[in-house]
Amino acid sequence: SFLSMEKEPVTVLVTGAAGQIGYAIVPMIARGAMLGPDQPVILHMLDIEPAAESLNGVKMELIDAAFPLLRGVVATTDVQEACKGVNIAVMVGGFPRKEGMERKDVMSKNVSIYKAQASALEKNAAADVKVLVVANPANTNALILKEFAPSIPEKNITCLTRLDHNRALGQISEKLNVHVGDVKNVIIWGNHSSTQYPDVNHATVTTSGGEKPVRELVANDQWLNTEFITTVQQRGAAIIKARKLSSALSAASSACDHIRDWVLGTPKGSWVSMGVYSDGSYGIQWSIVQGLKIDEFSRGKLDATAQELIEEKSLAHSCLN
Ligand code: NAD
Ligand code: LMR
Known about the structure:
Domain Lactate/malate dehydrogenase N-terminal: 11-157
Enzyme class: oxidoreductase
Family: Belongs to the LDH/MDH superfamily. MDH type 2 family.
Domain Lactate/malate dehydrogenase C-terminal: 161-289
Structural class: alpha/beta
Helix content: 40-55%
Strand order of the largest sheet: 3-2-1-4-5-6-12
Strand content: 5-15%
Order of helices and strands: HEHEHEHEHEHEHEEEEEHHHHHEH
Radius of gyration: 20 Å
Number of strands: 12
EC number: 1.1.1.37
Distance between the termini: 57 Å
Shape: globular
Bound molecules: nicotinamide-adenine-dinucleotide, (2S)-2-hydroxybutanedioic acid
Largest sheet: 7 strands, mixed
């Protein structure tokens, strides 16, 4: 029967669910934007005590929206309960930066959250839980989570650079006046910060005459090597300046893209960006694209963002001591 063919629900945790990104992402998940239109979901939403009433309001709205794929909602301030049986963990909980701050300026507030929640996940989540850290500084929070959840396979702990990837696609699409869906294979190297390196050296656009390199179509290395890079690097700050709040709908949508492509895969010949624990080898669920040619310009940018990550790591450890 049709009934017996239905998939088992997948349990998705969203931390910081009463916040801005939380409010944007839970309806996307409940509509199938993260795991597909035939995948029932159970949502676990975690926030802290001062946000408990507001979190309960989000739960009421999820019920009121009558999402057919949504098979259960838990709204809680108990981190152990929130992590129970979780298959996918989207870690948004924490504090956003304000205008004029760098993302690492929220480090001392946020890394301690990731240390504590690592243990709760390790203890309560499914053994093969897939973790996406969104809260900033995202790469370093993910590293701390990995260190304090040693039994979760390190390949299952990732952070969000897909928003930067999507921003890069958006800038190319605007510049060339082509559909964003026809642009692919940009790369975000390094930190989700102003040292990140959005690389278009391998990016292409599908045109009526076949696949063309972005560098050939833009035919303006000056723009690609300066304004394009700084626009993507500084886009988060530009959104904060304009909205007086950090990005939320684009962050939520990109987090859905990240999980969807991780679980369901990317089309042959294309890749996407995610922050992963780097060991240089191929993995089972995702793999690092190997063998790309890195020119001298790219080399300098890669080294700068890697250096920043090393500094953040030691800063994070000093915050926890
Ligand atoms: P927000 O302040 O609107 O929401 C954050 C929520 O987290 C709040 O409801 C807060 O109560 C909750 N929270 C705080 N401590 C918590 C804890 N210990 N456990 C559970 N919940 C907790 O912020 P937002 O705009 O939704 O942004 C959330 C985070 O995501 C920020 O750190 C922001 O900088 C980051 N962010 C990252 C990206 C990215 O691309 N990686 C993009 C956008 C935002
Ligand atoms: C973003 O890139 O929009 C987020 O990391 C929020 C921020 O602080 O810039």
